[in-house]
Design a protein that fits this description.
The protein has 198 residues and is α+β, with helices and mostly antiparallel strands. It has two domains: 38 residues; 147 residues, Rieske Iron-sulfur Protein (3-layer Sandwich), CATH 2.102.10.10. The protein is built from three helices and nine strands. The longest helix is centred in the first third of the chain and has 28 residues. The termini are far apart. The mean pLDDT is 88.
Length: 198
């Protein structure tokens, strides 16, 4: 102990301990702050593309995938249903896909798809966002005595053909949206990207 009553060793120990605790506190505050700049795994997944294996989707069947928290319908159309598409123009609100934002350029055709047999659509009704139900059979239905196959929205009665085009008389004014997608292989579709961006 020095003559003025101050223990320099103890003072150095206390200063060091205080600095150490302060440094730990600063790091514990900085880590979450810096971490908040990085997107969460959930946020990354929300914008990430989705890969879908379509090898087991038989003609006339549909599978539902998810992309950005929304359902995506992938259906394999039969030769018969493809032939029917060209006969429906008089019953549809927008048979020519005039609203170009509803589909990528490569899907701006009669089939609204890259390959005629496979259709990829957001499973969200363009009226109020319900999920339309798949009715692929060409047969009379309660909601349409001359049903030619497609999707029916049970919420408010909107009807869409097997290319996702909206029928006249439906509350929905727009066709179902075709998301960006490409074929990674014959059996794998990547939804959420065009091949040029991949």
């Amino acid at each position: 102990m020095s003559q003025d009553g101050v223990n320099k060793g103890r003072r150095t120990l206390l200063i060091g301990a205080t600095a150490g605790v302060g440094a730990v506190g600063a790091v514990s505050l900085a880590v979450p702050f810096v971490g908040s700049w990085m997107p969460s795994e959930k946020a990354k997944a929300a914008g990430a593309p989705a890969k879908v294996d379509v090898s087991k989707v038989e003609a006339g069947a549909m599978l539902t995938a998810e992309w950005r928290g929304k359902p995506v319908y992938v259906a394999r159309r039969t030769e018969e249903s493809l032939a029917t598409l060209s006969t429906l123009a008089g019953r549809l609100k927008d048979p020519e896909n005039t609203k170009k934002e509803q589909q990528p350029e490569y899907a701006d055709n009669e089939y609204r798809s890259r390959k005629p047999e496979l259709i990829v659509l957001l499973g969200v009704c363009t009226h109020l966002g319900c999920a339309p139900k798949y009715f692929p059979e060409v047969q009379p239905e309660q909601f349409d005595a001359n049903w030619q196959g497609g999707w029916f929205c049970p919420c408010h009665g909107s009807r869409f053909d097997l290319a996702g085009r909206v029928y006249t008389g439906s509350p929905a004014s727009d066709n179902l949206v075709v998301p960006p997608y490409y074929f990674e292989s014959d059996n794998v579709i990547v939804i959420g990207e065009d091949e040029v961006k991949a």
